[in-house]
Design brief:
A four-stranded antiparallel beta sheet has the order 1-2-8-3, with helices on both faces. It has a four-stranded antiparallel beta sheet with strand order 5-4-6-7, with no helix packed on it. The chain has one domain: Mannose-Binding Protein A, Chain A, CATH 3.10.100.10. It is α+β, with helices and mostly antiparallel strands and 152 residues long. The chain has three helices and eight strands. The protein is 28% helix and 25% strand. This is C-type lectin domain-containing protein. It comes from Mesorhabditis belari. Keywords: Disulfide bond, Signal. InterPro entries: C-type_lectin-like, C-type_lectin-like/link_sf, CTDL_fold, Snaclec.
């Protein structure tokens, strides 16, 4: 029984300390504990460039999705915080039809809806019905997700 209490204490302690590296309004992105990624949603609709600037003003970037787990978590956050309104995610067309994370890193994970991405679009949003990605014009006004590496 003592071992069980110790285990519960350790798990509780780790859960509490996980949240310590993220400032108020941000939550740790589950499954990214090694990287200490913090994420928040921004319900204010703006074009991609303003959303990107808004994230940068607090030391963050538009949220980059690295796996199905990240995608699922942001989908749940979209449902909860953004009234199921399609948010911008950190995926862009490099201009030659290659989609990547802002800053030029190639996509590690992709989750496009059938028929997407479209050649004439340069930005990406998450579909509120399917959690898959749609390409869109960067001037469309959408909410967004911001993320950054925490201090832990």
């Amino acid at each position: 029984m003592n071992a069980l209490y110790r285990l519960l204490f350790i798990v509780s302690f780790l859960s509490i300390t996980d949240a310590l590296w993220c400032p108020d309004g941000y939550t740790p992105l589950p499954g990214q504990n090694v990287d200490n990624v913090c994420v928040t949603s921004n319900a204010r609709a703006m074009n991609f460039y303003d959303a990107e600037k808004g994230c940068a003003s607090v030391g963050a970037t538009l949220a980059q999705i690295w796996n199905l787990y990240d995608n699922s978590y942001l989908y749940a956050l979209m449902k909860k915080d953004l009234n199921s309104t399609a948010p911008y995610i950190g995926v862009v067309n490099s201009g030659n039809g290659t989609w990547m994370y802002p800053g030029g890193r190639p996509l590690y994970y992709e989750n496009w809806n059938p028929g997407y991405p479209k050649a004439d679009d340069n930005c990406a949003i998450m579909d509120p019905e399917t959690a898959k990605w749609n390409s869109t014009s960067c001037i469309d006004k959408q909410p967004s997700f911001c993320s950054f590496f925490g201090t832990g």
